[in-house]
Design a protein that fits this description.
2 copies of one chain form a homodimer. The first copy, chain A, has 327 residues and is mainly α. In chain A, 75% of the residues lie in helices and 1% in strands. Chain A has a two-stranded antiparallel sheet. Chain A is globular, with a radius of gyration of 20 Å.
């Protein structure tokens, strides 16, 4: 099986589920706003992870669909609110929701998506005891996301952030929802605790690699593919791993210049370019790529618990995809 | 039993549960912000409704505590976000959370409270099948709250709102969470569908009466007791039932003057007084009080399904309290 084709297949499946969920509801303005992000692209990686994790143990992924859908709704709820908190202009190449409808309507639409995720889970035909476990996975990961977001909001004003702080922050903001995705698939497939834990570690490590690659693409990606302005993290002064490493490695003059650009809200394109060159020259970009590879390899090691099958191969290939993708 | 004493007892119980939940967590800034509203007063009416509803059928309310706690957390999450959306300055006599820490941190803290509510439910010792039912109650009611909030946000720009629109809006914004509270108590107590439905209707009708009284207190209440500026709804141009009725009854000159005040964001105290007098003279305040009484009576009628006990008496007296309270 070709991994990218398999990803595409589940993406279409989840898009149909989303379509079905919002059908007949769009006459209410709230639902129209709620449908905006889930209905406009995205890779649907989290449901994919759930479905393939379930299939890897149970040869069946059908039962896992409602949980996959819930994960995608939770992911989109976080995007709607993150865009407001980060004051981002573009998402998937289009103006962000709050830029279109204002903060109040966007906050509310995000809340609606969050509630809908749990509503989908409550109406699924998954048994009560498993729903309770999935509820713990999902709610714990959102608590972690909120902790990570709070740390991220504070990092922008803090120069003493080190690599460990950064990894902890992206673990919370990104990796825990990946973890909840793979663990949930394993729970639905009836796995034992050891299998569930290894699947969780697999996804957590892949999630960290995913976020490092995401930050890398923000610097060197193609705007048409990543759907936002290249260098937006520099414009916003984000303390990414690359920035943290560069500040460790650069001369004090170069460090000062980098901080100056990060703290300026109105940088020109040449200034953004200058900052990227500084990151490049410091070796921080290379370091970051290598660290993503290390987490990716560790993620694959966790899969030794999975019985051999084409699904296991997909889970392995997904890790490579995550650190090689260009969008 | 004295209803107010009983309410106070459960309020203390839920406050202890909240204290316990946030203990050892407050070193993380997110949790500090999350604890701000749940830890600063409020009547804890929703948990009370759950606990007494459970006890009315099962003589025991202990099992219902985690769900009551979840309801209170959901309620507080909605308050945190509502204050941002409505740009309110005061809550329970203190500056609102977003006024203290900014929109981004407050949005995030609200999300954390929402996630925590479901997390509490997932970690309770309530059985899986009941958790699944409670999850549906809770998530459906938050979806209704978001719909109601969306309607409320649009109403401020709409002059054609009638009484039915208004009742539907407050039903969603307020009454559905009351409904989920009483239904949840009945579910936990092992009630049959008919009992659950009657308890839901009891609480829904009481919730409507509650909100009408809330709007009334905003106009004629004591600032020290209601914890916010009297007349804030007029300042914000809210289309309350009293405003809707007054616009139907007043002469066209008086109506125009009322609309002028509602649409002005910088009214002086005498202008707010003038608007209140117009509402009074039109008979709208009296009408509103009578309608609250009607809903309260209908709520009590639903209780005929409840076996006679001191808990039933509390449920009846709670209805009277809701429409007679001054805070």
């Amino acid at each position: 099986m070709d991994m990218v084709e398999e990803l595409e297949k589940r993406k279409e499946l989840i898009e149909q589920e989303i379509e079905e969920l919002f059908k007949d509801k769009r006459d209410h303005n709230l639902w129209e706003l709620m449908a905006f992000y889930p209905g406009s692209g995205g890779k649907k990686l989290r449901p994919f992870l759930t479905l393939v994790s379930a299939a890897a143990f149970d040869r069946s992924e059908k039962k896992a669909i409602p949980y996959g859908l819930a994960l995608e709704l939770v992911h989109n709820f976080t995007l709607v609110h993150d865009d407001i908190m980060d004051q981002d202009d573009l998402r998937r190449g289009k103006p962000t929701l709050y830029r279109r409808v204002g903060d109040a309507h966007a906050i509310n639409a995000g809340d609606g998506l969050f509630a809908l995720a749990f509503n989908v889970l409550s109406k699924s035909d998954i048994g009560g005891d498993k729903v309770k476990e999935l509820l713990e996975e999902l709610s714990s990961s959102v608590l972690k996301i909120a902790e990570g977001q709070e740390e991220d909001l504070s990092f922008e004003e803090d120069l003493d952030i080190d690599e460990a702080d950064f990894i902890e922050m992206i673990e919370k903001k990104t990796a825990y929802l990946f973890k909840a995705s793979a663990r949930g698939g394993a729970i639905i497939a009836g796995c034992d605790q050891e299998e569930i834990d290894h699947m969780g570690e697999y996804a957590r490590k892949m999630g960290i690699a995913f976020q490092i690659q995401d930050d890398y693409l923000d610097l060197v990606g193609d705007e048409g593919k990543i759907g936002k302005d290249v260098g937006s993290d520099i414009q916003e002064g984000k303390r990414t791993l690359m920035v943290i490493k560069a500040l460790e490695n650069l001369s004090s003059d170069d460090s000062e210049r980098l901080i100056e650009i990060l703290e300026d809200d109105g940088n020109t394109d040449p200034e953004i370019e200058e900052a990227i060159d500084l990151l490049e020259d410091s070796g921080a970009i290379e370091y970051s790529k290598e660290l993503a590879k290390k987490y990716a390899e560790e993620a694959k090691d966790e899969l030794s618990i999975v019985p051999d099958s084409e699904y296991k191969v997909i889970l392995e290939e997904l890790v490579d995809y995550v650190i090689k993708r260009d969008r």
